[in-house]
Fold these 2 entries.
Entry 1:
Amino acid sequence: ANVDALAAQLASRDASLRVRAAKALADLGPAARAAAPALVAALADPDNDVRRGAIAAYRAVLPGAKPPPEFVRAIAVDLKDADATVRLIAARALGRLGSAASAAAPDLDAL
């Protein structure tokens, strides 16, 4: 798969195409490192599936990297989800980030 083409698809108007691009980048793992800037942009996607796919892809593409604030904010969005399970998953994910998740502290306190 062409990493540049997949990165470009993250900006498509078609949400299903953006989800598939994020999944394909995640499957490539660190070989898709060049797509990191596009993945960071996709972390703010208004579509929940795309945003969650970008979170997973970012983790797969840059394992062990210090998460940028955009990554923390992307997870924190789910703290306000109507589904309690989604909120729990988000809180646990932020907990695993440790001090890197400090930007989400107000959202966690609001739970």
Note: The first helix runs from residue 3 to 9.
Entry 2:
Amino acid sequence: GIMPHPRYFLFFINQDNMNLRDIKKDIEYVLGAFIEDCSVVAAVRPSTDETVAALMEEAIELYNELKDKVSAKVDGSKKAYFNALRKEILERTDALYTKLSEAVKDAVAE
């Protein structure tokens, strides 16, 4: 089945030197990779089209939400805010990959 793709973890190794531009690029890369993986699944398993389309929509909504959070005015520690945001990016993208993996498992079981 589809497992969370390890390639996006590379961008979160050195968090101390990351800036706002890096976080924005990471959001684009991570969610872009997810949407690309959804496209591959839909092409290989047409029976997953509806589920995959819903997951792609969820990824786009997450992208917009995260971009808004990156652009928001931060009260308090920016470092703590952005570290929490990085963690959220990983956790929520992992949740999307888990849903994609379940869709593939269900399609294979049919």
Note: Residues 6-14 have pLDDT under 50 and may be disordered.
